[in-house]
């Protein structure tokens, strides 16, 4: 994978043009507009990421929780904590933009620690087998394989100089 180009020249040209338009729009935004956009992005990402993990908050309930700290009735405390943790992790990444510029396993583990705070989940690389309900997929089953795969992925990501390829393999 290190020597494989993920995008052809036509695709890269299209991505470069889209990035130019994005940067132009970004430069025209006020600080308040930028903050509101980041807040909206944070709500959407927190909701979708938590939904993947089985969280049952709706998008509207998520927005209410993240903006007003109002929990939804009929939901567990863990669901609210999960969403608030996602927001904290995203806020950290936005506030320290260079933190993930050079990706490391330790930095991934630190972001993971923000995501699992107060959820009773073990920190760092897991030491036991897991399964994914409703699928036949079997994840790597021991910490040594997981660490090796994670280190290989970090090396691959850090080796991609094209920003679009770098993001795509993340």
Q: Provide mean pLDDT, rounded.
A: 89
For the sheet with most strands, the description reads:
none
Helix content: 55-70%
Let me know the number of strands.
0
CATH homology group? Fido-like domain
Q: List the uncertain runs.
A: none
Strand and helix order? HHHHHHH
Radius of gyration: 19 Å
**Under the CATH scheme, which class?**
Mainly Alpha
Count of discrete alpha- or pi-helical segments spanning 4 or more residues: 7
CATH architecture label name? Orthogonal Bundle
What distance lies between the first and last C-alpha atoms, to the nearest angstrom?
13 Å
Secondary structure topology:
Elements: H1 9-27, H2 31-52, H3 59-68, H4 77-95, H5 105-116, H6 143-159, H7 163-169
Helix pairs in contact: 2-3, 2-4, 4-5, 6-7
Task: For the structure shown, list the relevant keywords.
7 helices, Fic-like fold, mainly alpha, 170 residues, single chain
